[in-house]
């Protein structure tokens, strides 16, 4: 009954909820290591199985309820310990190896397979969904996001063609609308969900490349770029590696981007940037503006870049993989002033939205470009259009999982205010870390805090500058091996530095306080041994 099928998802489309629900806070405990001791150790290979004769998944249907029970109870145990576990377990690098062996000729069925998998997962999984994973920029999974992800696997919708999943496609339209509301982007823009910010950068820059080609009278998606001069691409030293990678994937070339840097940090040299655009004399170009760079969470001067770019016929792409969320909090709202006048803007779901991997979003001012870049024809492809989109024609993948379920569910569950409260709490936690760094006589804050990253290094008294990089590199390794808190090193203005990033909805004051304690404790040990 298609009429029913096609009306369920629209019924979920109302205004982005405003109601705020403060996240439940976990009791503050000292972390204790949870591993095989808690989870009962390894099963013998095949020991939990039935006959060793399972050859067809259909025969396993009788076990389906057991399989669901097992997945649920294993998830419960993992999640119950998540808040108090070490981030890294001693088996992190060996647990998966225990699952090696020759391809089974006959299977043991799902209960055995899943029990083995769960045991190895408990032993080896990095607790990146927990509150003390500060490496890279990785969020957790809100209860709503996690539950929706389970449903996503159960419903197993392919949101490529409308006909394959009107429910998934309609929900993606709704999710994109809600995200535009959340980020205050113009209603008329198009959007699509992808695997993460790398692919979102690819989508935005692919649309920019199409626009640039059309400005020269060439349909680059049909005819390629060989007939054209190299595409001018401008950015600051804050550009993320994934945007450069996207330029490579697009055939524009990684080295094609010109970076205008005024210092070792990579901050934009705005005069040189504007002069380069002026020299193009109105010829089209691409500008990549960075809303949140990974070393210190700093921003390009977005409003000025957008203004200059628009005066010189540039396509302005904004990478806000995590920084776009600064728009939700009044105190950081100004950092992204002007993005509504850009041409493509991207962000990530598995970072600050705290939905499970993998999820990112690309928004594009001229939605028709998406179809121009990603369209494909085959006689069995039918339908499409704004009302009943084939998302396979609007993004890079043809078959696509229903990422919108987790996005919709988490926004429905916590609303704009829930996310504002979370971002504001993370901003306060970040300032708290920075203050502790400033107060400690063996730590050095290397950059002002703009958003959710603290850039600092260990600098004990009496250690010469020439030894600090080595000490901080060793300390970085020690922090990862210790596993109570988790973050890595970078190079900032030539110095080895730490850059913990706070985006997990579970993170509390005691978690960030432990971060500083661990650095000082392990740092002191390394300094004594040096
Ligand atoms: C600014 C920025 N852009 C892009 C990316 C790539 O994101 P993803 O790993 O989700 O593809 C990141 C990841 O940290 C990032 O910080």
How would you characterize the overall build of this protein?
By secondary structure, the protein is an alpha/beta fold. The chain has helices at residues 2-8, 36-39, 64-82, 110-124, 143-155, 166-182, 197-215, 220-223, 241-249, 270-279, 302-311, 368-374, 404-439, 465-482, 509-529; strands at residues 190-194, 233-235, 257-259, 285-290, 314-319, 344-348, 360-364, 443-445, 456-458, 489-492, 495-498. Helix 9 links the parallel strand 2 and strand 3 (257-259). The relative contact order is 0.14. The structure holds pyridoxal-5'-phosphate (PLP).
Describe the biggest sheet? 7 strands, mixed
Q: What is the N-to-C succession of helices and strands? A: HHHHHHEHHEHEHEHEEEHHEEHEEH
Read across the widest sheet, the strand sequence of neighbours is: 1-7-6-5-4-2-3
What is the subunit arrangement here? single chain
